Amino acid sequence: MLDGTPVKSRDFTLDIGLNFTQNKNEVLSLAPGIPYLQFGGFVNPGIFAYPNQAYGVIYGTHFLRNSSGQLLLSDSGYPQIANGLGPIGNVTPKFIAGMTNTFMYKSFVLSFVLDWKHGGDILNLDNHYLFVYGTPIVTEDRGSSKVFPGIIQSTGKVNTTPVVLNQNYYTNLLAAVDESSVEDGSYIKIRDVSLSYNFGSFLTGKVIKKLTLSLTGTNFILHKNYTGSDPEVSLDGSGNGQGFANFVAPSNSSIIVGIKATL
C-alpha cells in the first residue's frame, strides 16, 4: 500500500492511495483419506482444493489434448471430449490492485475508488445451459465454418479441415464440455465515485453548523471480458466457492443524492 498527498495548496489538495495484492499458492496436502475439498458447485463441475495444485481450481469435463496442450481432433475435424475430469481453470486472480483519489478544491470534494482484478477464471454455467438454445452471443456465428487449430488424432497431422458450427456442435459438444464455459474474470470498476459541495456561511448559522450536498455512484463497470452481468457475482455468495455462476441475481449500480446537515 502507498498513500500520499502529492499536491497541497491553499485552495487545492490531492490525496492518492494505491494498493496491490498478489497471491501465489499451492495446496501441499489434505487430511489422510481426503482426496480433495469442494468449495462450490455441484458434484461436478465445481471449485476444489487438490494437493499439489493451486487453491480454487475449477474441475470439470474438458476437450481431449496431447501432452503439449494441442487439441486432438476427430477425423472430421471437430474437438473431442476427454474421459474423466480435469483442471479447466482457477479462480485465483493473478493480482488485485486499487486506487483511491480525493480532489479538494475550495468547497468541492471529488473522490473515487478504482478496483482492478487481473485474471481469475469464472465457470459461467448460464452459457453452459443456454448453448443448447442458441441464445449466448458465442452462438451467433452458427452455420459458419471454422478450422479448429489442433492435430487429427488418427493421423498426427495438423488439421486443415473446415467444419460447420451447426446446432449439433453447440448441443452435443460445446454444451457437453465444462471447459467451453470457463471465462476470464478480469475487470476494472469504479467502486465508488462521489462529488460533494460544502455550503459556506451564507446558508449556515446558529442552527445549522455545516451543510453538505453530495452525489454518489457505486459499482460501475468500466471493462470486463466476462459475458455475464458482473464477474463478481457468485452462486455461493462471499464464501470460498468463488468463480461459479449459475443463474444468480445480477449485481446493481446505484446513484444516491444526499444532503447532510450538522446541527
Structure description:
The chain is mainly beta. It has one domain (2-262). Helix content is 5%, strand content 42%. The chain contains two helices and 18 strands. A seven-stranded antiparallel β-sheet has the order 1-2-8-9-15-16-18, with no helix packed on it. Strands 3-4-5-7 form a four-stranded antiparallel β-sheet, with no helix packed on it. The chain is elongated. The mean pLDDT is 90.
Structural class: mainly beta
Look at the structure and give the mean pLDDT.
90
Helix amount: under 10%
Assembly classification: single chain
Keywords for this entry:
263 residues; mainly beta; 2 helices; elongated
Architecture blueprint of SSEs:
Layout: E1 2-8, E2 12-21, E3 37-41, E4 46-49, E5 57-60, E6 72-73, E7 86-90, E8 95-105, E9 108-118, E10 121-124, H1 125-130, E11 145-146, E12 151-152, E13 163-164, H2 167-172, E14 182-184, E15 187-199, E16 210-224, E17 244-245, E18 254-262
Parallel strand pairs: 6-12, 10-17
Antiparallel strand pairs: 1-2, 2-8, 3-4, 4-5, 5-7, 8-9, 9-15, 10-14, 11-13, 15-16, 16-18
Q: What's this entry about, in short?
A:
This protein has 263 residues and is mainly beta. The protein has helices spanning 125-130, 167-172; strands at 2-8, 12-21, 37-41, 46-49, 57-60, 72-73, 86-90, 95-105, 108-118, 121-124, 145-146, 151-152, 163-164, 182-184, 187-199, 210-224, 244-245, 254-262. The chain is elongated, with a radius of gyration of 25 Å.
